[in-house]
């Protein structure tokens, strides 16, 4: 079964990728989508047997031996436990729906077989990542999704902006992946293995024994520092987290995600909202047995996560591109997940990952439906008043928005998916012992306010008010075909119900029998029990700010639409700061891109062109042709010249042998 | 010399005797045969005679020293004699069609080739400076005449005359060297010279003699700076003659050079080594550079052969068994590539123009005759030394020997020169495949196609059967040490 889940997408990718020309676009679409449907159904079966059952069904499924060199022993195997099962469900469900949705969305594109092959290839790589039994296999999947993401962002390769966005995504991820690779090396040095079983089994030895002094023996040398056991573990965790930051677009390495919206919208839904960007969250959750041992690393995770949540939410407030708003929202929600990881509420993080996949994919696919309706326009300033024209899409977007903003009544079981998962994180942050938890709590509550504001702003700007599009565009507005709407319905069901159905399992009363040890927590970490016991105001805080955000958006975009412009004029500096995304792109351009370009052009023009070409190949070639002409000239044809040359030669030889004979 | 010794000597030198007697018989046949069929009859018989001798040498492996130590038949001699005979036979066979088309029907040509071959075989076996000189002169005199055999052509006679005058000059210098060596050691036999030099402070006179002796030998393999005759003679002589010049005499002269320096002067390796290194580097460099300016393909092949002699000398410069083995392998590969290339040059024939010799005449060969163009491309790649073809392995053996002997600069210069030299081989390929086609060549004669095919198979297949050849060459090289 697990083989089928993982390899069916690969099979689909191969068939569509290499045989797409032969079998045609229609067949490619149906084959890849059909395989995905099977894989998704099997994933749910796996989820029910592994996660929901009472017995422990976790297992390791060996596929083949991979690398055996010295003490490095890496097998290609599936690690099947609850965490894997959850990820299988998320990845395959969203991927299947995106496949089906794309049949409608990409209807006019001539390169559909290639598109579906990439989608399936991505799914395969992502499945490799989540099922991996060791860090090396995970790295393979990690790079595989990076490649697929690169290919899909640049799918419309004739658009220069798409190409540069694809390169940006790839290069920024390189920074994170470098850290990840170093982290893997570090793990291998510390534990002598990259297999999760061995690592987790030995992680406990890194804790000082009860009452004993911590060992100060050096176990790892990094950047010239000799590190003892606990510091070494911190360094390794931070390096792994660096990889997670790149893939999950966390603060400082986030710049690629908004640009990645250059890809087709289904790609944004699948890769840049639901699955790939959560790989970092998955990594930290998977490595929880070693992260849990390093308070320093966890604090860094909290700070980065909280900062990202706040930062991305502020930028989302003023963006005008419908997809970019959702992209920053994704970035911000990923920050929530990392905060949850950092404070030790791993279950809450994965729960939010799970629910977020549904409502964010729903929002993206809904946005795609809107874009499809208004003739590929993405600027919200040229939309408006679409509610009556595309009612189905409108209601789907509303469901996505209420799920994202977390509508619900605290203390009851009434609420959307986001209500359960996000509020759990905010409340956990309040009770957590982590030194940065207070900062995180404040940041997350503010971010929740902003989330609500920008989400409703998006709805109001797009669907309400007066139409701002040209009459021609408005004339063509139509609701999407069923093949695009059905996936929206399924996701909508998930966005509403995922929270209420599953919150007890992921982060509640059934925590232990659900996870069965797939997530590791220290004995003194009982956040899962404590987060219910928070003051009344804290419990309501998320709901209150959500309502405030809704009110603010309603006031500024429905009641008095001139307020935003005057506010922007009043606080021009702040507005510009937010509109330009805190000037991160400009800063990186100044710090890295331009010096790198200068260095590159120096090495190219001076180093390669002037020095190497000038004195190397070109110079030699010039000298050789000069010599050739001279050599030809010497060959005069006159006998006495030839005889003279011979005599000179013999004189030279005699001199040479005499000089040589002296020593 | 007793009667027993004489019969033994004659027995050992039987192949040479057969050639000597055979040439006289053929001369008679040529004189008395009807005039219009003399050439073809004699050519046929000459090829048969050479093949017979080659078969004799392959099947009756009679080794030993003869004529009081002036002549030796050993594994080394066998190796080079077989190469020389192959070169002569193929050159003679390739001349048949040319003789018919170009009215080049003199029965003296095959007889002169046999006499030259006899001289070469004696050179290869010579173990005394006197027998060496005699053999060399026998070969040279035959070659002078062959170069000028097309006596109605000004270019051919000019080539013959130049070759003769410069050859005489080099012979004189060589003879001077021989007399100095004799004067300072008191011997002419190689073993005696070597014995006389052992453990003795060698004198300036001997060094002088060695330098002059090497000058004469270097002239024969057309090494720089004694190469000046080569381009003019190659261009001026009729093409079958050029093919012969490029093949057989090079084998014999290289064999002679190797035997002299390792046998007679093996104890003063350091002295001749520096000269060999010098002429090796000069030959490689000139061969690589000067060929770039050529448009006549025969001239180009002249510089190519100069360069290839330089590469072969890299192996000799190492002065080890591996080095000499490298020389032997290199010469065998060079022979195959050169004969194949000349088969193509002889096939460059148009109906209205006759034989053409410009590189640009090859334009569009690939479209007109893709199969032959492919074989020629393979040969050019091999000459340039591109793996996995035979030319690469030849260079591999000699450079490896040089590196093992610690001659890193020599090996590096060799590699650089072969990179530069690759240019003009690749230019031919470019002209064949990418330039605007010229009119077609007439279809090549059967014997030329056979030679093209065989050399193509040799060059491509060397990677398969190169091992036995190398082992045989190693065995031959050991005979000198």
TrEMBL record, chain A:
This is NADH-ubiquinone oxidoreductase chain 5. One of its GO terms (biological process) is ATP synthesis coupled electron transport. It comes from the Bacteria. Residues 132-450 form the NADH:quinone oxidoreductase/Mrp antiporter transmembrane domain. It catalyses: a ubiquinone + NADH + 5 H(+)(in) = a ubiquinol + NAD(+) + 4 H(+)(out). Keywords: Electron transport, Membrane, NAD, Respiratory chain, Translocase, Transmembrane, Transmembrane helix, Transport, Ubiquinone. Pfam families: NADH5_C, Proton_antipo_M, Proton_antipo_N. The chain crosses the membrane at residues 6-23, 35-54, 82-103, 115-132, 138-157, 178-196, 232-253, 265-285, 297-318, 325-347, 353-374, 394-420, 440-463, 484-506, 540-558, 639-659. Its EC number is 7.1.1.2. The keyword Mitochondrion does not apply. Residues 454-507 form the NADH dehydrogenase subunit 5 C-terminal domain. GO terms for molecular function: NADH dehydrogenase (ubiquinone) activity; NADH dehydrogenase activity. Signal peptide: none annotated. It is a multi-pass membrane protein. InterPro entries: NADH_DH_su5_C (IPR010934), NADHpl_OxRdtase_5_subgr (IPR018393), ND/Mrp_TM (IPR001750), NU5C-like (IPR003945), Proton_antipo_N (IPR001516). Residues 66-116 form the NADH-Ubiquinone oxidoreductase (complex I) chain 5 N-terminal domain. GO terms for cellular component: endomembrane system; membrane. It comes from Ahrensia marina. It is found in: Endomembrane system; Membrane.
Automatic annotation (TrEMBL), chain B:
The keyword Transport applies. Its EC number is 7.1.1.-. Keywords: Cell membrane, Membrane, NAD, Quinone, Translocase, Transmembrane, Transmembrane helix, Transport, Ubiquinone. GO terms for molecular function: NADH dehydrogenase (quinone) (non-electrogenic) activity; NADH dehydrogenase (ubiquinone) activity; quinone binding. It holds the Pfam family Proton_antipo_M. GO terms for cellular component: endomembrane system; plasma membrane. It is an enzyme of class 7 (translocase). The keyword Glycoprotein does not apply. One of its GO terms (biological process) is ATP synthesis coupled electron transport. It catalyses: a quinone + NADH + 5 H(+)(in) = a quinol + NAD(+) + 4 H(+)(out). It is a multi-pass membrane protein. Residues 126-420 form the NADH:quinone oxidoreductase/Mrp antiporter transmembrane domain. It comes from the Bacteria. InterPro entries: NADH-Q_OxRdtase_suN/2, ND/Mrp_TM. The chain crosses the membrane at residues 12-33, 40-60, 75-97, 109-126, 161-184, 204-229, 272-293, 300-321, 327-348, 369-390, 396-426, 447-473. It is found in: Cell membrane; Endomembrane system; Membrane. NDH-1 shuttles electrons from NADH, via FMN and iron-sulfur (Fe-S) centers, to quinones in the respiratory chain. The immediate electron acceptor for the enzyme in this species is believed to be ubiquinone. Couples the redox reaction to proton translocation (for every two electrons transferred, four hydrogen ions are translocated across the cytoplasmic membrane), and thus conserves the redox energy in a proton gradient. NDH-1 is composed of 14 different subunits. Subunits NuoA, H, J, K, L, M, N constitute the membrane sector of the complex. Belongs to the complex I subunit 2 family. This is NADH-quinone oxidoreductase subunit N. It comes from Ahrensia marina. The gene is nuoN.
């Amino acid at each position: 079964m697990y083989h089928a889940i993982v390899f069916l997408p690969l099979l689909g990718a191969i068939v569509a990728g290499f045989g797409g020309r032969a079998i045609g676009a229609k067949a490619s679409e149906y084959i890849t989508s059909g395989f995905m449907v099977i894989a998704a159904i099997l994933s749910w079966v796996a989820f029910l047997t592994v996660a929901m059952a009472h017995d422990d069904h976790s297992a390791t499924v060996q596929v083949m031996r991979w690398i055996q060199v010295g003490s490095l022993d890496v097998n290609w195997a599936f690690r099947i436990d609850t965490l894997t099962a959850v990820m299988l469900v998320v990845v395959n469900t969203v991927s299947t729906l995106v496949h089906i949705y794309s049949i409608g969305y990409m209807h006019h594109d001539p390169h559909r077989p290639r598109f579906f092959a990439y989608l399936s290839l991505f799914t395969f790589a992502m499945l490799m990542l989540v099922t991996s039994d060791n860090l090396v296999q995970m790295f393979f999947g990690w790079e595989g999704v990076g490649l697929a993401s690169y290919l899909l962002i640049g799918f419309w390769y004739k658009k220069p902006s798409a190409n540069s966005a694809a390169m940006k995504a790839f290069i920024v991820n390189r920074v994170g992946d470098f850290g990840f690779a170093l982290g893997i090396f570090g793990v291998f040095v510390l534990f002598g293995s990259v297999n999760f079983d061995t690592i987790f089994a030995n992680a406990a030895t890194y804790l000082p024994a009860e009452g004993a002094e911590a060992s100060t023996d050096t176990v790892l040398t990094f950047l010239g520092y000799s590190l003892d056991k606990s510091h070494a573990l911190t360094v390794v965790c931070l390096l792994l987290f660096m990889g997670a930051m790149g893939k999950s677009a966390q603060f400082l390495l986030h710049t690629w995600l908004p640009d990645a919206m250059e890809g087709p919208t289904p790609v944004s839904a699948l890769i840049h909202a639901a699955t790939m960007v959560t790989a970092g969250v998955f990594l930290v959750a998977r490595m929880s047995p070693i992260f849990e041992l390093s308070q320093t690393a966890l604090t860094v995770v909290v700070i980065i996560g909280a900062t990202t949540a706040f930062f991305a939410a502020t930028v989302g407030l003023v963006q005008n591109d419908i997809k970019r708003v959702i992209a920053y929202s994704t970035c911000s929600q990923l920050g929530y997940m990392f905060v949850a990881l950092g404070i030790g509420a791993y279950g809450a993080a994965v729960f939010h990952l799970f629910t977020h996949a549904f409502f964010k994919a729903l929002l993206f696919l809904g946005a795609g439906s809107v874009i499809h309706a208004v003739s590929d326009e993405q600027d919200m300033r040229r939309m408006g008043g679409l509610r009556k024209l595309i009612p189905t899409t409108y209601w789907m977007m509303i469901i996505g928005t209420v799920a994202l903003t977390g509508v619900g009544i605290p203390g009851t079981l009434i609420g959307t998916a986001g209500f359960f998962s996000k509020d759990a994180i905010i409340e956990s942050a309040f009770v957590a012992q982590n030194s940065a938890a207070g900062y995180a709590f404040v940041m997350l509550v503010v971010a929740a306010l902003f989330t609500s504001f920008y989400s409703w702003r998006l709805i109001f700007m797009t669907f309400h008010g007066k139409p701002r599009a040209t009459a021609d565009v408005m004339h063509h507005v139509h609701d999407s075909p069923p093949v695009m709407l059905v996936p929206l319905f399924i996701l909508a069901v998930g966005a509403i119900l995922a929270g209420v159905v599953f919150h007890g399992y992921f982060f509640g009363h059934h925590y232990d029998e659900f996870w069965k040890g797939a997530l590791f927590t220290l004995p003194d970490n009982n956040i899962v029990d404590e987060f219910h016991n928070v003051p009344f105001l804290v419990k309501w805080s998320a709901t209150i700010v959500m309502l405030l955000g809704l009110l603010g958006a309603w006031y500024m975009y429905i009641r008095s639409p001139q307020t935003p412009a005057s506010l922007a004029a009043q606080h021009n500096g702040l507005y510009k700061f937010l509109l330009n995304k805190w000037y991160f792109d400009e800063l990186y351009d100044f710090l890295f891109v331009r010096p790198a370009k200068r260095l590159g052009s120096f090495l190219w023009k001076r180093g390669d062109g002037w020095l190497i070409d000038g004195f190397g190949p070109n110079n030699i070639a010039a000298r050789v042709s000069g010599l050739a002409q001279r050599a030809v000239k010497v060959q005069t044809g006159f006998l006495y010249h030839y005889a003279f040359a011979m005599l000179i030669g013999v004189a030279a030889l005699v001199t040479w042998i005499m000089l040589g004979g002296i020593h | 010399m007793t009667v027993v010794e004489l019969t033994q000597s004659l027995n050992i030198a039987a192949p040479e005797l057969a050639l000597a007697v055979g040439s006289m018989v053929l001369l008679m046949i040529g004189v008395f045969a009807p005039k219009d069929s003399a050439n073809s009859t004699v050519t046929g018989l000459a090829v048969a005679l050479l093949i017979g001798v080659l078969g004799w040498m392959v099947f009756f492996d009679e080794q030993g020293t003869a004529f009081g130590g002036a002549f030796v038949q050993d594994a080394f001699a066998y190796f080079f004699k077989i190469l020389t005979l192959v070169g002569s036979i193929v050159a003679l066979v390739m001349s048949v069609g040319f003789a018919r088309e170009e009215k080049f029907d003199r029965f003296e040509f095959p007889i002169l080739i046999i006499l030259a071959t006899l001289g070469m075989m004696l050179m290869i076996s010579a173990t005394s400076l006197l027998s060496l000189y005699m053999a060399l002169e026998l070969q040279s005199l035959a070659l002078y005449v062959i170069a000028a055999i097309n006596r109605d052509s000004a270019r051919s006679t000019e080539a013959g005359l130049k070759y003769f005058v410069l050859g005489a000059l080099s012979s004189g210098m060589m003879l001077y060297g021989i007399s100095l060596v004799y004067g300072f050691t008191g011997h002419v036999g190689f073993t005696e010279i070597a014995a006389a030099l052992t453990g003795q402070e060698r004198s300036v006179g001997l060094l002088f003699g060695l330098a002059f002796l090497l000058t004469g030998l270097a002239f024969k393999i057309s090494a720089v700076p004694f190469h000046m005759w080569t381009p003019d003679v190659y261009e001026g002589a009729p093409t079958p003659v050029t093919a012969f010049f490029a093949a057989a005499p090079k084998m014999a002269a290289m064999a002679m050079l190797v035997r002299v320096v390792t046998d007679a002067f093996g104890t003063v390796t350091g002295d001749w080594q520096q000269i060999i290194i010098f002429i090796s580097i000069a030959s490689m460099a000139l061969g690589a550079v000067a060929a770039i300016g050529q448009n006549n393909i025969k001239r180009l092949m002249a510089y190519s052969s100069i360069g290839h002699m330089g590469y072969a000398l890299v192996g000799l410069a190492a002065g080890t068994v591996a080095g000499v083995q490298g020389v032997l392998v290199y010469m065998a590969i060079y022979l195959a590539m050169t004969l194949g290339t000349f088969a193509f040059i002889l096939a460059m024939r148009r109906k209205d123009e006759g034989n053409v010799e410009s590189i640009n005449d090859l334009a569009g060969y690939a479209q007109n005759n893709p199969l032959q163009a492919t074989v020629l491309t393979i040969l050019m790649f091999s000459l340039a030394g591109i793996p996995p073809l035979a030319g690469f392995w030849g260079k591999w053996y000699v450079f490896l020997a040089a590196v093992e002997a610690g001659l890193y600069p020599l090996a590096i210069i060799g590699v650089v020169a072969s990179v530069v030299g690759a240019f003009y081989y690749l230019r031919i390929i470019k002209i064949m495949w990418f330039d605007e086609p010229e009119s077609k060549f007439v279809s090549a004669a059967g014997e030329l196609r056979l030679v093209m095919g065989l050399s193509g198979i040799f060059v491509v297949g060397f990677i398969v059967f190169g091992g036995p050849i190398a082992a045989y060459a190693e065995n031959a090289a050991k005979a000198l040490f």
